[in-house]
């Protein structure tokens, strides 16, 4: 802990301080209207998290950004990467260089830890280009669904059920990458947190395949596959047969190279931009997407 700008206190690596953690929760709730304190019930925040923030004399978190380990597979190669999340500054303190200060502290931390790349999601890409980040376009994969798959016994999981939560946590700890083209190798905490924010999300365990499918259906004949958690990926035909759905169209929100199915790659036109800071040649050769359950 050390003195910061304009009488504020700069703090790093403070998640073991419950009052400071609550201050960060309050900041993110006030700025983004998201209550990240729900992570406590789901097992807590990512243990690799390294937050960097400014606090006032009353303990309120004024500005923050958090780095965390996010190992990736890119074109079949392991990449020791970090992610940045929880970046925010209270409106009353903007324009004072606080965000630049916490960003530089987080990037210095990532460099000191030897991370090969740093990634983030933002709707303000120009803010991060000055720090060496470049946008990587994402795609979704859509088309006519395959048929004739093998149906596995299936059971719906519920995060409110402690046994289901424990099972899903164990599967997330031992999961295989959902794609060799691009995928996070671990992102348990964000998967669980994102799932808790999505009331229409279905989490179905394909028991014989030991895999959980995160999916949605819109009631108009469309199915979206958001992620798959398992030690191996079932074919998409087997997934749809197991879920007992016959959609007119299926959209897979990650590269489907393990699904024995090819969809049309459709450029993502959403507001959030995926950005990477790292070697110029470090990016998937073919279209890819970060699974929505790993969004951070």
Automatic annotation (TrEMBL):
Pfam families documented for this protein: Acetyltransf_9
InterPro entries tied to this protein: Acyl_CoA_acyltransferase, GNAT_dom
The protein's Enzyme Commission number: 2.3.1.-
Superkingdom of the organism of origin: Bacteria
PROSITE patterns, per database record: GNAT
Sample GO molecular function, one term: acyltransferase activity, transferring groups other than amino-acyl groups
Record keywords: Acyltransferase, Transferase
Segments forming domain N-acetyltransferase: 12-161
Protein name per the record: GNAT family N-acetyltransferase
Naturally occurring in which organism (per UniProt): Shinella sumterensis
Lineage: Bacteria, Pseudomonadati, Pseudomonadota, Alphaproteobacteria, Hyphomicrobiales
